[in-house]
Design goal:
27 helices; alpha+beta; single chain; extended; five-stranded antiparallel β-sheet
């Protein structure tokens, strides 16, 4: 890069004023063409050499693995033979003395340094500790291996094992000594360290469909890999495969299994891009060498060769020094072209040094605030933790997040938001002069306090920051009220490594936000347990969506005026295979926070329409839609698809929304509501009366129905205030030509009051609890028979 810039400077500075110079340029052009041909050929040779080198190393690594296991198998066999030849041990095996055999097995396992060792007697009893599945395999192993001593690789639920059996002769065979060596991360790491290149070693096994995959899913189903293993084409000669990480050189070692059938395969791979990376310097060197040759030909041709040889040599040496990272200035000895070139070089050298310093600063500092960035923060935290561990001291991490920062960007614009971040960063640097203040990204900041003198310093600093932000900050002429939430973690109790300590500080920050924002919280172990529980629940939700663990229950909505069932509300239920029924209040918030509610809501919409199409024509189905699902792109298309696939009439579908869907912008929501209305779908406003702006939403969009919240219905029969509110809602709905449904009706006094005030329909335990989908038709038929 540096020499390319120098060449451009040279070309700009030289003035071709005479014939010799023009001829020199012509010769240089011819020489450059030759260099290009040489460079292309060199690049091709480099690529081929890189591929040959990696293939050779893979083949060597496969051979090394075979030799290592052969040596280890020989050593284990020797250990087994020593025990098998022991007279007392053979007597114990022959007499069935399990206590003596077990003691000998433990001594053998410790002496041979293997995790699992067993003795199998003639009756098939297995003596020795180990996983149950492995013991089951070991019991049948002597009969499935050939020869006096044999080894094989077997697969269990816990992983792959290399097993080796040695007979116990007295003089006939009375049992076998069996070693089982797990092919775990330790074995794989040992193999990887023996290689001259950082290759990847992975144990593959067959899945139920017969495909070869890795247990940790790092190697998924790959047809080319299956073919290569089946034909044995990759056992000796490496080939190339498309793996999840990209194109890679690969070698497979089929590990001999029981009865000669392989149960596991060792895959050695090395990314092709990484193999070529080590040759980048050589490729660049060829290009740089060509440029140097071009410069030499240019300055050495013609009558000027003798006069400019020395200055060009000086420039060449300076360019090399500059390439190695040094700062050098060339003496300007004349005012001709060479002198001007030297001046340009000096300017270029100074500019390069300045840019390198700037680049180094940008690599470790935030460009907006000038504070250390996440990279420098983590390096410093790691260094502080290492030093604190040696000196038995503490390191404190404070994670900070501005409350309401998104609103600042949305209302005042990003320039003001950037100015606010700069102002806040400067404020933190002023308050935390004894720590490292860093901006991790967005509106997230962090502070490191390495071995604070005062044990109460983290608390005092957090409180000082909160106190400073109690008054609005003045930024670019704006008074901006902006709070901050702070999470604090202290090593070593809350984590002895950077990742754990920062994660726990972040969990404490999340707790501070949940506790109302504008506060600080210290990390507690319960936060980590709650985070793991939430993460597991999210994973289970994803699995439930793909394995069909969800189902719908339906709660009837009774039409008081027609004295019949007017519809059903679809209610989501989750039957976990291990936990049993999971309450919606437990999993719906997690689904909304993770975004899974969009996919789950799509399933609910499709399933509800599919069920409702079989009901009588006057019975509608109501589907509650979360704000996140409603605001997702393509929601109207999902509704259209559900209606099309099921054949349900649009007017029989009722979409229930809450006023929280309007928080992201009323105009967009109203537009979507009109699209649904144009399809013929009915729209209901759920939980009416609980929001501060419900009336304004009725003015923005003419809903088909409003649902009176249960909080009013609970006391409507005994509280005059609740009764007045319900009456007002019913009068308002009647004036706007909207239907009404009262939720949570549980006793006859409530029903009588609501019927007397003119409520259109009710929903609650008084009429029916939610029922399973298969019971809906029976309930409808029963009500119709009773009405007749």
């Amino acid at each position: 890069m540096i020499l390319r810039r120098a060449l451009r400077r040279i070309v700009r500075r030289l003035r071709f004023r005479n014939l010799s110079t023009r001829l020199s340029v012509l010769y240089t052009a011819l020489f450059a063409a030759a260099l290009i041909v040489v460079a292309v050929v060199g690049q091709i040779m480099i690529l081929n050499h890189a591929k040959d080198s990696v293939r050779a190393e893979l083949a060597t690594s496969g051979t090394v693995y075979d030799r290592i296991w052969a040596l280890r198998a020989s050593a284990l066999a020797s250990s087994g033979d020593v025990l098998a030849r022991d007279f007392g041990f053979r007597s114990a095996v022959a007499s069935g003395d399990r206590e003596t055999i077990a003691s000998a097995v433990v001594n053998l396992r410790d002496r041979a340094d293997v995790p699992n060792a067993f003795v199998v007697d003639q009756s098939g009893d297995v003596i020795g500790d180990g996983p149950a599945e492995l013991r089951s395999i070991v019991r049948d192993l002597p009969t499935s291996l050939s020869g006096d001593r044999a080894d094989a690789t077997v697969m269990t639920e816990s992983g792959a094992y290399r097993v080796l059996a040695s007979p116990i002769l007295a003089p006939v065979k009375i049992g076998s000594v069996i070693f089982a060596v797990p092919l775990d991360a330790r074995e794989i790491s040992a193999l990887q360290r023996l290689s001259a290149i950082p290759l990847n070693a992975t144990i593959l096994h067959r899945d139920p469909r017969g495909h070869w995959i890795a247990r940790d899913a790092s190697v998924p189903v790959t047809p080319a890999l299956d073919t290569m293993i089946a034909h044995g084409s990759g056992d000796a000669t490496p080939t190339t495969l498309d793996l999840p990480g990209g194109r890679a050189f690969a070698l497979v070692k089929r590990l001999k299994g029981r009865n000669g059938i392989p149960e596991a395969v060792l895959l050695l791979s090395y990314p092709q891009a990484r193999a070529l990376a080590s040759y980048r310097a050589l490729q660049l060197g060829i290009a740089l060498a060509g440029v140097l040759g071009l410069v030499v030909v240019l300055v050495g041709s013609g009558r000027l060769a003798q006069s400019i040889a020395r200055p060009i040599t000086a420039l060449d040496a300076a360019a090399k020094a500059l390439e190695e990272g040094g700062s050098i200035q060339v003496a300007v000895a004349s005012s001709d072209e060479i002198g001007r070139l030297a001046e340009s070089f000096n300017l270029m050298s100074a500019g390069i040094n300045e840019r390198e310093h700037r680049i180094a600063h940008l690599a470790f500092h935030d460009s907006l605030t000038g504070l250390p960035n996440r990279t420098l923060f983590r390096q410093q935290l790691e260094a502080d933790l290492t030093r604190a561990g040696k000196m038995n001291r503490k390191v404190v991490v404070l994670c900070l997040d501005l409350d309401g920062f998104k609103g600042v960007n949305d209302t005042l614009g990003h320039p003001v938001g950037d100015a606010l971040l700069r102002h806040f960063g400067g404020l933190l640097a002023t308050l935390a002069v004894d720590g490292l203040v860093s901006r991790l990204g967005g509106d997230e900041f962090a502070i490191i306090l390495a071995d604070p003198d005062d044990a109460d310093r983290p608390r005092a600093l957090a409180q000082a920051i909160l106190d400073k932000l109690r008054l609005p900050m003045r930024v670019d002429g704006h008074e901006i009220p902006c709070g901050v939430s702070i999470g604090i973690a202290v090593s070593p109790g809350d984590g002895a490594d950077p990742d754990t300590l920062l994660k726990n500080a972040d969990l404490a920050l999340y707790r501070a936000k949940r506790d109302g924002r504008g506060v600080f919280r210290f990390f507690e172990p319960a936060l980590d347990a709650a985070a793991r529980k939430r993460r597991q629940l999210e994973l289970d939700l994803r699995d439930a969506l793909h394995t069909g663990q969800f189902r719908l229950n339906f709660q009837p909505i009774f039409d008081l005026k027609a004295d019949r069932i007017g519809g059903f509300e679809a209610l989501l239920r989750w039957e976990h295979p291990e936990r049993g029924a999971v309450a919606p209040i437990d999993f719906i918030p997690v689904a909304e926070e993770s975004g899974l509610i969009v996919a789950i809501g799509e399933w609910v919409m499709l399933e509800a329409c599919r069920q409702a199409v079989n009901w009588p024509a006057h019975v509608r189905v109501a589907v509650n839609v979360s704000p996140l699902q409603f605001r997702s792109t393509g929601f109207a298309n999902i509704v259209f698809q559900a209606l099309s696939n099921s054949g349900l009439a649009p007017e029989r579908l009722e979409v229930e929304i809450t006023e929280s869907v309007f928080l992201e912008g009323e105009g967009t929501v109203v537009t979507l509501l009109h699209r649904l209305r144009a399809m013929g779908v009915r729209i209901a406003l759920d939980d009416f009366g609980t929001g501060y702006s419900s009336l304004s939403y009725l003015r923005s969009f003419p809903f088909d129905k409003i649902k009176i919240d249960k909080s009013f219905v609970d006391t409507v029969a005994r509280d005059a205030g609740s009764a007045a509110i319900v009456r007002a809602i019913l009068d308002l709905a009647d004036a706007l030509h909207m239907d009404t449904t009262a939720e949570g009706v549980e006793d006859r006094d409530q029903l009588a009051k609501l019927r007397g005030q003119g409520c259109g329909s009710i929903q609650g335990y008084l009429f029916s609890r939610p029922i399973e989908a298969g019971m809906v038709a029976g309930m409808i038929a029963e009500r119709m028979t009773a009405a007749a």
